[in-house]
Specification:
This protein has 352 residues and is of the alpha/beta class. The protein contains 11 helices and 10 strands. It is globular. The chain binds adenosine-5'-triphosphate.
Length: 352
């Protein structure tokens, strides 16, 4: 029996509601697969933890997280709970950096044409993976002290060969198991850091002659995602472009509640919805748990490519079957199903 220990970090806002739903679905799926077993332990991290104990992510907690097989995270941060310099607490970003989770894997899939604000042409669908570099780029000096008397502020777009190479390689590896196409998104026409990123991408691409490539500037990408999102397979880009484009991409398939993610490094991985804490709908049963449920499926696949894969496919098929019926929609998708209604339906559609 393969046994996995999972740290569940519900966090703040709608985090606890969507994490509960995902744990329920993942447990129910795993119960239907022979030879695999999971145990969840809840750990408090986030703005709520800061209010209780003065630190949103104590070092001891980071060390403990490293002892688990995987981490499932809800959402963290609250608009009113800020550091003295005014910025929000973002332990979910700190975890990525401390555990070196350089791959932000964001699968984008349209489950029903009604979920999209686009008029989807007959025979087309939206199904791609956006891969965001998570540990450098425009977030690289975000924690540096700033002289608060200075009349200017800067952020640095840092791209290292090591950082660019490993994220580009990851993109090609993902594409090998898909439609074998990678699109690089950058701003190589203006920014030196991005021209460097492109040169590394070009060099890595030579190792993957079977994978087709194209290169798109980030401003054009904002346009293409709306006009022709059907053509993309794997998209790779730096940190802040990936942050922005992944929200736009989520919008194409129904919004943040439909966008799962996996933050993966060489030793650890965190699975979480792409959305934040959505404080305006917290505690009302209105949160769409599907992004977190699908993140749970990504977790199972990463943990165990054989038995976990069975559980992951079971969850993805149950989500697809549930959403086939356009009446089955949460509030964000224009329906009236609560978090628990949609979770119940997904559990009832799990089939071994
Ligand atoms: P953050 O700054 O942490 O990203 P945010 O509130 O700015 O937080 P999100 O939490 O991602 O951004 O929310 C963006 C919008 O999407 C909000 O209107 C929110 O209510 C909605 N939203 C996000 N997640 C969900 C969800 N799971 N179900 C329903 N609506 C959601």
């Amino acid at each position: 029996m393969a046994h996995y220990n999972i740290a569940a970090l519900p966090g703040d806002g709608i985090g606890p509601e969507v994490t509960d739903a995902a744990c329920r679905v993942v447990r129910s799926a795993v119960d239907r697969v022979e030879g695999i077993d999971l145990e969840f332990e809840n750990i408090s991290v986030g703005a709520g933890e800061y209010l209780k104990n003065g630190d949103p992510l104590p070092d001891a907690t980071v060390q403990r997280l490293k002892t688990f097989d995987a981490i499932l995270l809800g959402a963290m941060g609250l608009p009113d709970v800020r550091w003295p310099n005014g910025v929000e607490m973002t332990p979910q970003i700190d975890i990525r950096e401390k555990l070196d989770l350089y791959q932000g894997v964001r699968p984008i899939k349209l489950y029903h044409p009604l979920h999209s604000p686009l008029r989807i042409p007959e025979g087309k669908t939206i199904e791609f993976v956006l891969l965001r570099e998570n540990c450098e780029g425009m977030f690289s000096n975000r924690l540096e002290e700033r002289d608060d008397k200075a009349e200017f502020a800067t952020d640095v777009m840092k791209v290292t060969r090591h950082g660019a190479e490993r994220i580009c390689r990851a993109a090609f590896e993902i594409a090998k198991g898909r439609r074998k196409h990678v699109t690089l998104v950058d701003k190589a026409n203006v920014l030196q850091s991005m021209a460097f990123f492109r040169s590394v991408f070009d060099a890595v691409s030579l190792d993957y002659p079977d994978v087709e490539t194209d290169r798109v500037y980030v401003d054009a990408m904002a346009l293409f995602l709306v006009q022709d999102p059907y053509r993309f397979d794997v998209i790779v880009t730096e940190n802040i472009f990936g942050d922005i484009l992944s929200d736009q991409a989520a919008g194409l398939v129904g919004g943040m509640g439909m966008a799962p993610s996996a933050d993966i490094g060489d030793d650890f991985a965190v699975f979480q919805p792409s959305h934040g804490t959505a404080p305006t709908i917290a505690g009302q049963g209105k949160a769409n748990p599907i992004a977190t449920i699908l993140s749970g499926a990504l977790m199972l696949r990463w943990l165990d490519p054989e038995k976990g894969e069975k559980g992951a496919s079971m969850i993805e098929n149950a989500v697809a079957k549930t959403l086939e019926n356009p009446d089955n929609r949460t509030f964000d998708l224009g329906g009236s199903h609560s978090t628990s209604d949609i979770t119940d339906l997904i559990v009832s559609n799990l089939q071994s």
